[in-house]
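If I may wish for something, please sit down with the protein I am sending here and say whether tokens and residues agree:
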Amino acid sequence: MVRYPEAMGDPLDREIRLSLWKIHILHHAAHRPVYGLWMLEELAEHGHRLSPGTLYPILARMEANGWLRATGGTGSSKARKDYRATALGRRVLAQLRNEIAELHCEVVLGR
């Protein structure tokens, strides 16, 4: 497994990785509720070491875009929120899957 540090000196690299992380989050949130700590651990298993200060703003932006819906977290800013993909988030993920498959064929398989 390749290890990718969270902040790799190149801002362009980070910008691309942000998109990959969002797709990964949407993928899991479409199957079951996910929460921040679990998502940090899941991404780390794939070599993506994010800090909470990176992940939680991503989740908030995804919720603001209408791709995720959060439940829980009431009463305390530290209370756990569960995130699920919305209908819009599922449509976005379906479109991205098609685009990723096409890109995989071109970039990885050389077709």
Residues 25 and 39 are 7 Å apart (CA to CA). The chain has a mean pLDDT of 89. The longest helix spans residues 87-107.
